[in-house]
Amino acid sequence: MAQHPDIDFEVRWRPFLLNPAASTKGVNKLQMYKEKFGEDRVEKMVPMMKAKFAAVGIDYSMGGKTGSTFDSHRLATYAYQQGGAQMQNQLMEELFMNYFSEEKFLGDPSVLKAAAAKVGLDGADAVVDDKNALKEEVETELQTHARGIHGVPHFFVNEYQISGAQPTEVFQQLFEQIAEEDE
Fold first, then answer.
1. pLDDT digits over 60-96, tens only?
2. What is the DSSP code (8-state) at residue 65?
């Protein structure tokens, strides 16, 4: 996006539940990945992920817990309502750091509240504490936007879709194609 300052981008994070039945109390992240993907695959995946994160100056860790992310999606929806795409993006960056680098469990209300406070999202405590706050909105978004999606990341760029982690060049080519179409 930085290479295309002539294009107006708005990043919007939509909810998607990789495991709708995930524990709300959390389970050991590394163990869950081993059970899901197999120990051999995880042993290959972890060094690759560590290298990718290190390349952008971030430590990667498989420590901590994983589980339901529904409450974090409610909070992300609130962030968008309160501060638009910029506030939502700041919150998501903080949540990603919490989960992938700092071994924090995104199902822990105190983690969500701290992330919201760090990015200046006022009123977030009430949303986190009220399990019904924005529940319908998130469920509607899941029904509307998650159809046909089977994994993350998944990107909607205008009418185009990109599935899976892709090299930067894939996005650059798509942005250039869209810019040409708009001329």
1. 999 999 999 999 999 999 999 999 999 999 999 999 9
2. E
